[in-house]
């Protein structure tokens, strides 16, 4: 049975994005939420985000500075989180 997993990205951004991609290998639905800050502009994070988009993963953010991600205010993110089976915070 497919699980719904939310990954909350704050501090360890590259590690969180890499781990999010790994979770889709077991055929679970993984949504990524980049919270409270701009995603670091490194080659590694850019590759992870590009791969996520190719795999049709949903990437959300509450920071307007993050380009290419769907913006959601904090209150809407909070309303979505209870629908997940697992929530992983990084």
Q: Gist?
A:
By secondary structure, this protein is of the alpha/beta class.
Description:
- It is a single chain.
- By secondary structure, the protein is of the alpha/beta class.
- The chain has a single domain, classed as Hypothetical Protein Ychn, Chain: A (3-Layer(aba) Sandwich).
- 33% of the residues lie in helices and 24% in strands.
- It is built from 3 helices and 5 strands.
- The protein has a 5-stranded parallel beta sheet, covered by helices on one side.
- Helix 1 links the parallel strand 1 and strand 2.
- The longest helix is centred in the middle third of the chain and has 12 residues.
- The termini are far apart.
- The model has no long low-confidence stretch (mean pLDDT 95).
- Rg estimate, integer Å: 12 Å
The top-level CATH class is Alpha Beta
Tally of helical segments: 3
Overall CATH architecture: 3-Layer(aba) Sandwich
- Strand tally is 5
* Beta-strand fraction estimate: 15-25%
The CA-CA distance between the termini, in Å, is 25 Å
How many domains comprise the coordinates? 1
- Which spans of ≥5 residues are poorly predicted at pLDDT below 50? none
Assign the CATH superfamily.
DsrEFH-like
Overall pLDDT level:
95
Estimated helix fraction: 25-40%
The major beta sheet can be summarized as: 5 strands, parallel
Structural class by SSE content: alpha/beta
Task: Examine the coordinates and then state which fold CATH places here, giving the name of the CATH topology.
Answer: Hypothetical Protein Ychn, Chain: A
Estimate the global geometry from the Cα principal axes. Answer: globular
Strand order of the largest sheet: 4-3-2-1-5
* Element string (H = helix, E = strand): EHEHEEHE
């Amino acid at each position: 049975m497919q699980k719904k997993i939310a990954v909350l990205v704050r501090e360890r951004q590259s590690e969180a994005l890499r781990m999010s991609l790994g979770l889709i290998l077991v055929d679970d639905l993984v949504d990524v939420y980049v919270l409270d800050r701009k995603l670091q502009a490194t080659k590694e994070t850019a590759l992870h985000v590009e791969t996520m988009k190719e795999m049709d993963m949903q990437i959300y953010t509450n920071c307007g500075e993050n380009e290419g991600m769907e913006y959601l205010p904090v209150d809407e993110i909070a309303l979505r989180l209870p629908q997940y089976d697992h929530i992983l915070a990084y």
